[in-house]
Amino acid sequence: MATSSRRHLTLDDWLGWFETHHPKKIDLSLERIAAVLERLDLRHPPFKVITVAGTNGKGSCVAMLESIYWHAGYTVGAFTSPHLWRFNERVRLNGADAGDAELVELLETIDDARGTITLTYFEASTAVALLHFARSEVDVAVLEVGMGGRLDSSNAVDADCALIVSIDLDHREWLGPDREAIGREKAGIVRRGRPVVVADRDPPRSLLEHAAAEGAVVALIGRDFDYRRAGLGWHRIGDADSAPPLPLPEFGGDEQLGNAAACAAVTESLRADLPVGDAALAAGIRHAYLRGRFERHEVGAVEWVFDVAHNPAAAEILRSSISRLPPRRTLAVFAAMRDKDLPGVLAPFVGSVDEWFVTQANADRGATGAELRDVLAAVGARGVTVSADVAAACASARSAARPGDRVVVFGSFHTVGVATDSLGLYFAPPPRGTPPARWTRV
Description:
This protein has 15 helices and 16 strands. The chain has about 450 residues and is an alpha/beta fold. The longest helix has 15 residues. The termini are far apart.
Protein backbone atom coordinates (compact mmCIF):
# COMPACT_ATOMS: atom_id res chain seq x y z
CA MET A 1 0.00 0.00 0.00
CA ALA A 2 0.99 3.64 -0.31
CA THR A 3 3.17 4.88 2.54
CA SER A 4 0.90 5.45 5.55
CA SER A 5 1.79 9.14 5.75
CA ARG A 6 0.42 9.59 2.24
CA ARG A 7 -2.82 7.66 2.62
CA HIS A 8 -6.02 9.69 2.27
CA LEU A 9 -4.26 12.50 0.38
CA THR A 10 -6.32 14.64 -1.97
CA LEU A 11 -5.40 14.93 -5.63
CA ASP A 12 -3.78 18.32 -5.01
CA ASP A 13 -1.82 16.80 -2.10
CA TRP A 14 -0.55 13.99 -4.32
CA LEU A 15 0.43 16.34 -7.13
CA GLY A 16 2.22 18.63 -4.69
CA TRP A 17 4.11 15.66 -3.28
CA PHE A 18 5.22 14.46 -6.72
CA GLU A 19 6.35 18.02 -7.55
CA THR A 20 9.09 17.72 -4.91
CA HIS A 21 9.51 13.94 -4.68
CA HIS A 22 12.35 13.70 -7.23
CA PRO A 23 15.48 15.85 -6.70
CA LYS A 24 15.07 17.50 -10.15
CA LYS A 25 11.88 18.79 -11.74
CA ILE A 26 13.22 17.92 -15.20
CA ASP A 27 15.45 14.86 -15.37
CA LEU A 28 15.30 13.33 -18.84
CA SER A 29 15.78 9.58 -18.56
CA LEU A 30 13.83 6.42 -19.31
CA GLU A 31 15.32 4.22 -16.58
CA ARG A 32 13.01 5.23 -13.72
CA ILE A 33 9.72 5.30 -15.62
CA ALA A 34 10.58 2.09 -17.49
CA ALA A 35 11.25 0.27 -14.22
CA VAL A 36 7.96 1.39 -12.69
CA LEU A 37 6.01 0.53 -15.85
CA GLU A 38 7.64 -2.92 -15.80
CA ARG A 39 6.34 -3.47 -12.29
CA LEU A 40 2.87 -2.40 -13.45
CA ASP A 41 3.09 -4.72 -16.49
CA LEU A 42 2.75 -1.71 -18.81
CA ARG A 43 5.98 -1.72 -20.80
CA HIS A 44 4.03 -3.42 -23.60
CA PRO A 45 0.52 -1.98 -23.28
CA PRO A 46 -2.51 -4.04 -24.34
CA PHE A 47 -3.61 -1.28 -26.71
CA LYS A 48 -2.30 0.53 -29.77
CA VAL A 49 -0.07 3.51 -29.03
CA ILE A 50 0.39 6.68 -31.09
CA THR A 51 3.03 9.12 -29.86
CA VAL A 52 2.99 12.73 -31.04
CA ALA A 53 6.15 14.85 -30.89
CA GLY A 54 6.99 18.28 -32.23
CA THR A 55 7.80 21.84 -31.30
CA ASN A 56 4.31 23.09 -32.18
CA GLY A 57 1.07 21.38 -33.16
CA LYS A 58 1.23 18.41 -30.78
CA GLY A 59 -1.86 19.27 -28.80
CA SER A 60 -3.83 19.96 -31.97
CA CYS A 61 -2.95 16.58 -33.44
CA VAL A 62 -3.74 14.73 -30.22
CA ALA A 63 -7.15 16.41 -30.10
CA MET A 64 -7.91 15.48 -33.71
CA LEU A 65 -6.71 11.88 -33.41
CA GLU A 66 -8.63 11.43 -30.16
CA SER A 67 -11.82 12.67 -31.83
CA ILE A 68 -11.25 10.73 -35.08
CA TYR A 69 -10.80 7.38 -33.38
CA TRP A 70 -13.76 7.94 -31.05
CA HIS A 71 -15.98 8.78 -34.00
CA ALA A 72 -14.72 5.60 -35.68
CA GLY A 73 -16.13 3.60 -32.77
CA TYR A 74 -13.02 3.01 -30.66
CA THR A 75 -12.38 3.53 -26.96
CA VAL A 76 -9.66 6.18 -26.87
CA GLY A 77 -7.24 7.44 -24.25
CA ALA A 78 -5.39 10.75 -24.62
CA PHE A 79 -2.45 12.03 -22.57
CA THR A 80 -1.43 15.67 -22.97
CA SER A 81 0.57 18.32 -21.15
CA PRO A 82 0.63 20.86 -19.72
CA HIS A 83 -2.91 21.70 -18.60
CA LEU A 84 -4.73 25.03 -18.69
CA TRP A 85 -6.81 24.76 -15.50
CA ARG A 86 -6.81 21.30 -13.89
CA PHE A 87 -4.40 18.38 -13.90
CA ASN A 88 -7.36 16.17 -14.87
CA GLU A 89 -7.20 17.60 -18.42
CA ARG A 90 -3.99 15.67 -18.99
CA VAL A 91 -5.64 12.24 -18.78
CA ARG A 92 -8.76 11.75 -20.89
CA LEU A 93 -10.92 8.78 -21.75
CA ASN A 94 -13.21 9.20 -24.78
CA GLY A 95 -12.79 12.97 -24.53
CA ALA A 96 -13.68 13.23 -20.82
CA ASP A 97 -11.21 14.27 -18.13
CA ALA A 98 -10.29 11.73 -15.48
CA GLY A 99 -11.97 12.34 -12.12
CA ASP A 100 -10.21 13.28 -8.89
CA ALA A 101 -11.02 10.02 -7.10
CA GLU A 102 -9.76 7.76 -9.88
CA LEU A 103 -6.59 9.83 -10.27
CA VAL A 104 -5.90 9.54 -6.54
CA GLU A 105 -6.36 5.76 -6.70
CA LEU A 106 -4.03 5.55 -9.70
CA LEU A 107 -1.38 7.64 -7.94
CA GLU A 108 -1.63 5.39 -4.87
CA THR A 109 -1.10 2.33 -7.07
CA ILE A 110 1.93 3.92 -8.69
CA ASP A 111 3.32 4.90 -5.31
CA ASP A 112 3.03 1.27 -4.21
CA ALA A 113 4.72 0.01 -7.38
CA ARG A 114 7.65 2.40 -7.44
CA GLY A 115 9.22 1.22 -4.19
CA THR A 116 12.38 3.28 -3.70
CA ILE A 117 12.36 4.66 -7.26
CA THR A 118 11.75 8.41 -7.40
CA LEU A 119 9.66 9.81 -10.23
CA THR A 120 9.37 13.32 -11.60
CA TYR A 121 5.94 14.93 -11.78
CA PHE A 122 5.78 14.25 -15.53
CA GLU A 123 6.91 10.65 -15.14
CA ALA A 124 4.20 10.05 -12.55
CA SER A 125 1.67 11.70 -14.89
CA THR A 126 2.70 9.36 -17.72
CA ALA A 127 2.35 6.30 -15.50
CA VAL A 128 -1.09 7.50 -14.35
CA ALA A 129 -2.27 7.85 -17.93
CA LEU A 130 -1.00 4.46 -19.09
CA LEU A 131 -2.43 2.67 -16.05
CA HIS A 132 -5.79 4.41 -16.51
CA PHE A 133 -5.91 3.44 -20.17
CA ALA A 134 -5.05 -0.18 -19.43
CA ARG A 135 -7.70 -0.47 -16.74
CA SER A 136 -10.24 1.19 -19.05
CA GLU A 137 -9.38 -1.30 -21.81
CA VAL A 138 -8.88 1.37 -24.46
CA ASP A 139 -8.35 0.35 -28.07
CA VAL A 140 -5.85 3.12 -28.76
CA ALA A 141 -3.97 5.71 -26.71
CA VAL A 142 -2.61 8.97 -28.11
CA LEU A 143 0.37 10.21 -26.10
CA GLU A 144 1.75 13.73 -26.40
CA VAL A 145 5.52 13.83 -25.96
CA GLY A 146 6.37 16.36 -23.28
CA MET A 147 9.86 17.41 -24.35
CA GLY A 148 12.04 16.13 -27.16
CA GLY A 149 11.30 12.46 -27.63
CA ARG A 150 14.23 10.12 -27.09
CA LEU A 151 14.30 10.51 -23.30
CA ASP A 152 10.75 11.66 -22.71
CA SER A 153 8.81 9.37 -20.38
CA SER A 154 6.14 8.75 -23.04
CA ASN A 155 8.89 6.99 -25.02
CA ALA A 156 9.16 4.23 -22.41
CA VAL A 157 6.51 2.32 -24.38
CA ASP A 158 6.83 1.38 -28.04
CA ALA A 159 4.65 3.39 -30.39
CA ASP A 160 2.71 1.58 -33.09
CA CYS A 161 2.86 4.86 -35.03
CA ALA A 162 4.88 7.99 -34.35
CA LEU A 163 3.83 11.45 -35.52
CA ILE A 164 6.43 14.22 -35.63
CA VAL A 165 4.54 17.43 -36.33
CA SER A 166 7.15 20.19 -36.50
CA ILE A 167 10.72 20.89 -35.48
CA ASP A 168 11.87 24.31 -34.40
CA LEU A 169 13.96 25.97 -31.71
CA ASP A 170 12.66 25.44 -28.19
CA HIS A 171 14.02 23.87 -24.98
CA ARG A 172 17.51 24.30 -26.42
CA GLU A 173 19.16 23.89 -23.02
CA TRP A 174 17.79 20.33 -22.96
CA LEU A 175 17.53 19.30 -26.61
CA GLY A 176 20.41 21.03 -28.34
CA PRO A 177 21.28 24.31 -30.05
CA ASP A 178 19.85 23.82 -33.54
CA ARG A 179 17.21 21.99 -35.58
CA GLU A 180 19.55 19.11 -36.40
CA ALA A 181 20.16 18.37 -32.73
CA ILE A 182 16.50 18.84 -31.81
CA GLY A 183 15.39 16.68 -34.76
CA ARG A 184 17.67 13.90 -33.59
CA GLU A 185 16.04 13.98 -30.14
CA LYS A 186 12.51 13.95 -31.55
CA ALA A 187 13.40 11.10 -33.91
CA GLY A 188 13.97 8.93 -30.85
CA ILE A 189 10.25 8.04 -30.77
CA VAL A 190 10.39 6.04 -34.04
CA ARG A 191 10.50 2.24 -33.92
CA ARG A 192 11.95 -0.32 -36.29
CA GLY A 193 9.54 -1.42 -38.99
CA ARG A 194 6.76 0.85 -37.74
CA PRO A 195 5.26 3.94 -39.37
CA VAL A 196 6.40 7.47 -38.64
CA VAL A 197 4.45 10.38 -40.09
CA VAL A 198 6.50 13.58 -40.52
CA ALA A 199 4.51 16.79 -40.99
CA ASP A 200 7.49 19.17 -41.14
CA ARG A 201 8.03 20.28 -44.76
CA ASP A 202 11.74 20.82 -44.21
CA PRO A 203 12.71 18.12 -41.73
CA PRO A 204 16.25 18.07 -40.38
CA ARG A 205 18.51 15.54 -42.05
CA SER A 206 19.16 14.02 -38.62
CA LEU A 207 15.52 12.99 -38.30
CA LEU A 208 15.34 11.27 -41.67
CA GLU A 209 18.72 9.59 -41.22
CA HIS A 210 17.72 8.22 -37.82
CA ALA A 211 14.39 6.95 -39.15
CA ALA A 212 16.18 5.24 -42.04
CA ALA A 213 18.77 3.69 -39.72
CA GLU A 214 15.94 2.34 -37.53
CA GLY A 215 14.13 0.90 -40.52
CA ALA A 216 11.00 2.94 -39.80
CA VAL A 217 8.35 3.36 -42.51
CA VAL A 218 8.39 7.10 -43.21
CA ALA A 219 5.43 9.09 -44.57
CA LEU A 220 6.59 12.63 -45.34
CA ILE A 221 4.30 15.59 -46.02
CA GLY A 222 4.77 16.94 -49.52
CA ARG A 223 6.06 13.58 -50.72
CA ASP A 224 3.81 10.81 -49.39
CA PHE A 225 0.78 12.80 -48.24
CA ASP A 226 -0.49 16.37 -48.36
CA TYR A 227 -3.62 18.48 -48.64
CA ARG A 228 -5.12 20.85 -51.17
CA ARG A 229 -7.82 23.41 -50.45
CA ALA A 230 -11.28 22.64 -51.80
CA GLY A 231 -13.73 25.48 -51.21
CA LEU A 232 -14.41 25.67 -47.49
CA GLY A 233 -12.68 22.32 -46.90
CA TRP A 234 -9.76 20.31 -48.17
CA HIS A 235 -8.85 17.13 -49.99
CA ARG A 236 -6.07 14.67 -49.40
CA ILE A 237 -3.68 14.29 -52.28
CA GLY A 238 -5.14 11.42 -54.25
CA ASP A 239 -8.78 12.25 -53.47
CA ALA A 240 -10.94 12.81 -56.52
CA ASP A 241 -12.10 16.37 -57.09
CA SER A 242 -15.66 15.07 -56.88
CA ALA A 243 -15.09 13.56 -53.42
CA PRO A 244 -16.76 15.33 -50.48
CA PRO A 245 -14.18 17.72 -48.99
CA LEU A 246 -12.91 17.12 -45.49
CA PRO A 247 -13.74 19.89 -42.98
CA LEU A 248 -11.40 22.48 -41.57
CA PRO A 249 -10.54 22.13 -37.89
CA GLU A 250 -12.52 24.56 -35.76
CA PHE A 251 -9.52 25.85 -33.82
CA GLY A 252 -6.23 27.45 -34.75
CA GLY A 253 -5.31 28.92 -38.10
CA ASP A 254 -4.22 27.68 -41.51
CA GLU A 255 -1.42 25.61 -39.98
CA GLN A 256 -4.09 23.17 -38.81
CA LEU A 257 -4.59 21.95 -42.38
CA GLY A 258 -1.15 20.35 -42.36
CA ASN A 259 -1.86 18.92 -38.92
CA ALA A 260 -5.17 17.46 -40.10
CA ALA A 261 -3.51 15.94 -43.16
CA ALA A 262 -0.89 14.37 -40.88
CA CYS A 263 -3.62 12.89 -38.67
CA ALA A 264 -5.27 11.43 -41.76
CA ALA A 265 -1.90 9.91 -42.69
CA VAL A 266 -1.65 8.35 -39.21
CA THR A 267 -5.02 6.68 -39.61
CA GLU A 268 -3.96 5.41 -43.02
CA SER A 269 -0.77 3.92 -41.58
CA LEU A 270 -2.77 1.99 -38.93
CA ARG A 271 -5.74 1.04 -41.14
CA ALA A 272 -5.03 -2.71 -40.90
CA ASP A 273 -5.55 -2.73 -37.13
CA LEU A 274 -7.69 0.39 -36.60
CA PRO A 275 -9.70 1.06 -39.76
CA VAL A 276 -11.23 4.55 -40.01
CA GLY A 277 -13.82 5.42 -42.65
CA ASP A 278 -13.99 8.80 -44.35
CA ALA A 279 -17.17 9.72 -42.47
CA ALA A 280 -15.47 9.14 -39.11
CA LEU A 281 -12.37 11.01 -40.29
CA ALA A 282 -14.47 14.01 -41.30
CA ALA A 283 -16.57 13.97 -38.12
CA GLY A 284 -13.48 13.58 -35.96
CA ILE A 285 -11.78 16.61 -37.50
CA ARG A 286 -14.96 18.68 -37.45
CA HIS A 287 -15.72 18.02 -33.79
CA ALA A 288 -12.18 18.03 -32.38
CA TYR A 289 -11.93 20.60 -29.61
CA LEU A 290 -8.92 22.37 -28.16
CA ARG A 291 -8.74 25.45 -25.99
CA GLY A 292 -6.07 28.13 -26.19
CA ARG A 293 -5.15 27.84 -29.87
CA PHE A 294 -6.20 31.04 -31.61
CA GLU A 295 -9.31 30.95 -29.43
CA ARG A 296 -11.54 33.98 -29.94
CA HIS A 297 -14.27 35.46 -27.72
CA GLU A 298 -16.22 38.71 -27.59
CA VAL A 299 -16.16 40.19 -24.08
CA GLY A 300 -17.98 43.47 -23.68
CA ALA A 301 -17.70 44.50 -27.37
CA VAL A 302 -13.96 43.72 -27.32
CA GLU A 303 -12.48 40.76 -29.18
CA TRP A 304 -10.16 38.62 -27.05
CA VAL A 305 -7.74 36.16 -28.67
CA PHE A 306 -6.05 33.49 -26.54
CA ASP A 307 -3.07 31.45 -27.68
CA VAL A 308 -0.49 29.42 -25.76
CA ALA A 309 2.24 30.39 -28.28
CA HIS A 310 5.54 30.47 -26.40
CA ASN A 311 8.31 30.10 -29.01
CA PRO A 312 9.18 32.15 -32.12
CA ALA A 313 7.64 29.72 -34.61
CA ALA A 314 4.32 29.63 -32.74
CA ALA A 315 4.40 33.40 -32.25
CA GLU A 316 4.83 33.94 -35.99
CA ILE A 317 1.88 31.63 -36.70
CA LEU A 318 -0.23 33.61 -34.23
CA ARG A 319 0.82 36.94 -35.75
CA SER A 320 0.04 35.68 -39.24
CA SER A 321 -3.39 34.42 -38.14
CA ILE A 322 -4.21 37.78 -36.53
CA SER A 323 -3.08 39.64 -39.66
CA ARG A 324 -5.85 37.91 -41.61
CA LEU A 325 -8.53 39.29 -39.26
CA PRO A 326 -10.13 42.70 -39.82
CA PRO A 327 -7.73 45.36 -38.47
CA ARG A 328 -8.42 46.68 -34.99
CA ARG A 329 -6.59 48.64 -32.33
CA THR A 330 -4.70 45.90 -30.51
CA LEU A 331 -3.64 45.41 -26.91
CA ALA A 332 -1.61 42.46 -25.65
CA VAL A 333 -1.40 40.60 -22.35
CA PHE A 334 1.84 38.65 -22.19
CA ALA A 335 3.61 36.43 -19.66
CA ALA A 336 6.09 33.66 -20.41
CA MET A 337 8.81 31.50 -18.96
CA ARG A 338 12.23 33.07 -18.51
CA ASP A 339 13.98 30.29 -20.48
CA LYS A 340 12.12 31.09 -23.71
CA ASP A 341 13.47 33.14 -26.61
CA LEU A 342 11.57 36.19 -25.42
CA PRO A 343 12.85 38.65 -28.07
CA GLY A 344 12.02 36.10 -30.76
CA VAL A 345 8.49 35.64 -29.41
CA LEU A 346 7.75 39.33 -28.91
CA ALA A 347 9.42 40.97 -31.92
CA PRO A 348 6.78 39.86 -34.50
CA PHE A 349 4.10 41.83 -32.63
CA VAL A 350 5.93 45.11 -32.06
CA GLY A 351 4.52 46.79 -35.15
CA SER A 352 0.91 45.76 -34.52
CA VAL A 353 0.37 46.02 -30.73
CA ASP A 354 -0.56 49.45 -29.42
CA GLU A 355 -0.39 48.71 -25.68
CA TRP A 356 1.27 45.92 -23.68
CA PHE A 357 0.32 44.51 -20.27
CA VAL A 358 3.01 42.19 -18.95
CA THR A 359 3.40 40.18 -15.77
CA GLN A 360 4.90 37.03 -14.27
CA ALA A 361 3.02 33.82 -15.10
CA ASN A 362 4.86 31.32 -12.92
CA ALA A 363 6.69 31.99 -9.66
CA ASP A 364 9.45 29.45 -10.35
CA ARG A 365 10.27 29.84 -14.05
CA GLY A 366 8.34 32.89 -15.21
CA ALA A 367 10.05 36.05 -16.39
CA THR A 368 9.11 38.97 -14.17
CA GLY A 369 7.08 41.87 -15.48
CA ALA A 370 10.14 44.10 -15.19
CA GLU A 371 12.23 41.66 -17.24
CA LEU A 372 9.55 41.53 -19.94
CA ARG A 373 9.31 45.32 -19.97
CA ASP A 374 13.05 45.48 -20.64
CA VAL A 375 12.83 42.92 -23.44
CA LEU A 376 9.98 44.85 -25.06
CA ALA A 377 11.94 48.09 -24.81
CA ALA A 378 14.90 46.40 -26.49
CA VAL A 379 12.78 45.28 -29.46
CA GLY A 380 11.14 48.69 -29.84
CA ALA A 381 7.72 48.16 -28.27
CA ARG A 382 5.68 51.05 -26.92
CA GLY A 383 3.12 51.49 -24.16
CA VAL A 384 4.20 48.82 -21.66
CA THR A 385 2.43 48.41 -18.30
CA VAL A 386 3.64 45.95 -15.65
CA SER A 387 0.88 44.22 -13.67
CA ALA A 388 0.97 42.21 -10.45
CA ASP A 389 -0.32 38.98 -12.01
CA VAL A 390 -2.14 37.64 -15.07
CA ALA A 391 -5.60 38.40 -13.71
CA ALA A 392 -4.55 41.97 -12.94
CA ALA A 393 -3.03 42.34 -16.41
CA CYS A 394 -6.32 41.21 -17.97
CA ALA A 395 -8.25 43.63 -15.78
CA SER A 396 -5.98 46.50 -16.84
CA ALA A 397 -6.28 45.55 -20.50
CA ARG A 398 -10.06 45.34 -20.16
CA SER A 399 -10.17 48.81 -18.63
CA ALA A 400 -7.95 50.24 -21.36
CA ALA A 401 -9.77 48.59 -24.25
CA ARG A 402 -12.45 50.48 -26.16
CA PRO A 403 -15.38 48.89 -28.00
CA GLY A 404 -14.11 47.37 -31.22
CA ASP A 405 -10.57 46.80 -29.89
CA ARG A 406 -8.77 43.46 -29.82
CA VAL A 407 -6.83 42.00 -26.86
CA VAL A 408 -4.34 39.22 -27.58
CA VAL A 409 -3.35 37.03 -24.61
CA PHE A 410 -0.35 34.76 -25.20
CA GLY A 411 2.99 33.41 -23.99
CA SER A 412 2.23 30.33 -21.87
CA PHE A 413 -0.36 27.78 -20.81
CA HIS A 414 -0.17 29.45 -17.38
CA THR A 415 -1.03 32.80 -18.97
CA VAL A 416 -3.99 31.59 -21.03
CA GLY A 417 -5.40 29.38 -18.27
CA VAL A 418 -5.48 32.15 -15.66
CA ALA A 419 -6.65 34.74 -18.20
CA THR A 420 -9.65 32.76 -19.43
CA ASP A 421 -10.60 31.89 -15.88
CA SER A 422 -10.39 35.52 -14.74
CA LEU A 423 -12.65 36.58 -17.62
CA GLY A 424 -15.26 33.93 -16.84
CA LEU A 425 -14.40 31.83 -19.89
CA TYR A 426 -13.54 28.59 -18.11
CA PHE A 427 -16.11 25.94 -18.95
CA ALA A 428 -16.57 23.06 -16.52
CA PRO A 429 -15.82 19.65 -18.10
CA PRO A 430 -18.64 17.22 -18.86
CA PRO A 431 -19.57 14.65 -16.19
CA ARG A 432 -16.94 11.95 -15.73
CA GLY A 433 -17.21 9.30 -18.41
CA THR A 434 -19.37 11.48 -20.66
CA PRO A 435 -17.96 12.41 -24.07
CA PRO A 436 -18.15 16.12 -25.00
CA ALA A 437 -21.65 17.21 -26.02
CA ARG A 438 -20.43 18.04 -29.52
CA TRP A 439 -19.38 14.40 -30.08
CA THR A 440 -21.94 12.12 -31.73
CA ARG A 441 -21.21 8.81 -33.43
CA VAL A 442 -21.40 8.77 -37.22
